[in-house]
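Open question from group meeting: does this chain pack into something compact, or does most of it stay loose? Before anyone orders reagents, we agreed to write out a predicted structure and look at it together. Recording both the input and the output here so the notebook holds the full record.
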Amino acid sequence: MDKLTDKQEELNESSQTITEESLEGQTDTETSVEMGDSGVEQLATDLDDEYETEEEQGRPYLLIALSGVAVILLVTMGLLFYRYYPLNSKIAGTWTGEAVGAEYKIENNKDNSTFTMLNANGTNGMDMVFKSKLTKEAANEYFVTDTKVFIQLNYEKLGAETVQSFVENEDMFTVVLDDKKTMLLAYTKAGVEYSFGDKDLDTLFKYVLRDFKWSKMGGDTLNLRNDLFASGGISFKREK
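Structure tokens returned:
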């Protein structure tokens, strides 16, 4: 009987030992799992911090690169715009040309354009003057509007009597200026019809800028496409 009791106590002690060891193992496992979760969270945090640091460090270089590209695009667009857009400033100034023994002069100032046929019809002291407004047409091409035509007479070269003979022809001309040195007469509607028929004076002038040079902010040659003054038009050179 005593032996059975002793045996039972030994079994109970063994069970208690096994239970305690199991509980300790479970505790160690839970602690390991908790430590493992904490390590993963810390690693993720470290990676996020490292990524944010690298992103912050790389952002200024990206902004600089994008700014550089934007500047290059703006400069390129500006140069192309100036190269091809028909700005009036590109043909500003005085231009001279010759054709079929006649001399011509163009004076452009902002949107005002004056075309002069010097010594018209071979008459020394008599110039035919066309005054117009410049308009932009296409790449370095210009048209004009509101064209009016005049005769400019030099008293000294023609003589007062000859000058007065134009004044007397009131159906053809009206006096615009007379300073006793030079007289400027405007063609009347009847005068324009008599001299040019039903032709639209604006269509007489179409300019094309050639030989574009950046250093001169324009070109060396201005072509007038007009067969009325000269077959094939007239080429003008910019006065320096």
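Observations to bring back to the group:
The mean pLDDT is 78.
DSSP finds four helices and ten strands in the chain.
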